[in-house]
Amino acid sequence: MAEPLAEARRFRLLIEYDGAAYGGWQIQPNAPSVQATLIKAARDLGTGDIDVQGSGRTDAGVHAFGQVAHLDLVTRLDADELHRALNAKLPRDIRVRTVQAVSDDFHARYSATSKRYLYVIDQARLLSVFARGRVWHVPGPLDIAEMRQAARRLVGRHDFSAFSSKANTRPDNVRLLRAIRILPGRHERLLLVFEGEGFLYNMVRTLVGALVAVGHDRLPPVELSAALDHGDRSRIPATAPPYGLYLWRVLYGRGTEPLPEGSC
Amino acid sequence: MAEPLAEARRFRLLIEYDGAAYGGWQIQPNAPSVQATLIKAARDLGTGDIDVQGSGRTDAGVHAFGQVAHLDLVTRLDADELHRALNAKLPRDIRVRTVQAVSDDFHARYSATSKRYLYVIDQARLLSVFARGRVWHVPGPLDIAEMRQAARRLVGRHDFSAFSSKANTRPDNVRLLRAIRILPGRHERLLLVFEGEGFLYNMVRTLVGALVAVGHDRLPPVELSAALDHGDRSRIPATAPPYGLYLWRVLYGRGTEPLPEGSC
């Protein structure tokens, strides 16, 4: 007779996904979600009260290179076997990059100390067919020096109510934005990196929309400081589209990785 | 009263496309084609016996960075206006990169002197979700020195019957393969560049399949020389998939651009 299974063990997953086909990370009634797709794949591989807890939500259409989640599972599989088995069951637009067995005191959301997002702007006159759905196409020049000056005003601990679409539904909109980097990339790309303790709903995309307006000389950098003070969403330009945004890395513990150099 | 229109003028188009949604370049009864999509877009912009002649066919699912075609059109638009108008009408997976007015003696197919194809292999253990449909995933090491040795056997003027799926339906299967380059790329990519006067049906993909078999030590390089001699398709391994292949450049006139360095 087979040995009885041990109790549930916790696994930490590093996950990459193309957000195009999903209503976001979070389980929701009327759209496929990355979380539900992972739970469905895990259900075939073990027993227990299977849930996959992410480090946080990503919106509809937003991508991830490095979402982190944990999963409690009663299974005979070890971490490597679970890794292969999950990828064999998942659709090709979600890949589990690594699986580690972790202790129960690791929590993907509550143990996270920082998140790093990447936003990719493509400034080419014509958008390549191979960049569709992966970048925000903003053809033509942007004043990067002005954008960096504006970014310096945003870094720090502030009430970001003016930079969230749902700020009025939440009691506390103060967040620590640790750093912004604005880095020219290859092929007429501009990369915007945001690192912070946490982000409000739509906050990164709203910051990007505001910074692009600054780069187009449609919004003076001082307006960003004013927006942090008055909290008025209506004076901040349109939110940047989701398909240029990537949850790049979730950090556990401080100072583990330096940000790329370039500015701010 | 408006001035009567002049007669048809010839325009040269440089075209990029993502081949995933198309049955190939060529008009065909049961699948959408890049050529038919371009003709449909051009029909709204002028009159005449509108046809779009490409430099050659690409198979179902094959991509292009630099397909070249010509179009004869009776139109009041100049080349720049036609360029913008075509892109406004085309779906996002086809982009016209440039439009030039050319004389009637330019012919996209008959004036071409060489074509350059790029094949992209991804050797990463896990294929990134963002590379899906753009590369052939061949995880693990390949013996590049052996592949280069094998490539040297293929370069030159040969009967490539053994490297085409339809060789037996054509009278002449001799082609000049000018060069092959095998270049390590970024992110565990291996880039294979083929330049030749012309290519048989499926020839580049068959050459790639054979070179990968050499790189896996499943086919000795000498077998490629034998295949050129005996013309027997059955001893050559499976054809590489279409989605790693890009029609990179069509050359008109000799020696216009050096190939990237690296080998062969």
Give the gist of this structure.
The structure is a homodimer of 264-residue chains. Chain A is of the alpha+beta class and 264 residues long. The first copy, chain A, is built from five helices and ten strands, in the order E-H-E-E-H-E-E-E-H-E-E-E-H-H-E.
Keywords:
5 helices; alpha+beta; Alpha-Beta Plaits; 28% strand; homodimer; globular; 264 residues; ten-stranded mixed beta sheet; 20% helix
Overall mean pLDDT of chain A stands at 91
Order of helices and strands of chain A: EHEEHEEEHEEEHHE
Helix content estimate of chain A = 10-25%
Q: Greatest interface and its residue counts? A: A-B, 17 and 17 residues
Largest sheet of chain A: 10 strands, mixed
- Spatial extent as radius of gyration of chain A: 20 Å
What is the CATH architecture descriptor of the largest domain in chain A? 2-Layer Sandwich
Query: CATH homologous superfamily of the largest domain in chain A - what is it?
Result: Pseudouridine synthase I, catalytic domain, C-terminal subdomain
Distance separating the two termini of chain A: 63 Å
The structural domain count of chain A equals 2
**Multimerization state:** homodimer
**Regions of chain A with pLDDT < 50 over 5+ consecutive residues?**
none
Percent strand of chain A equals 25-35%
Overall CATH class of the largest domain in chain A: Alpha Beta
Give the overall silhouette of chain A: globular
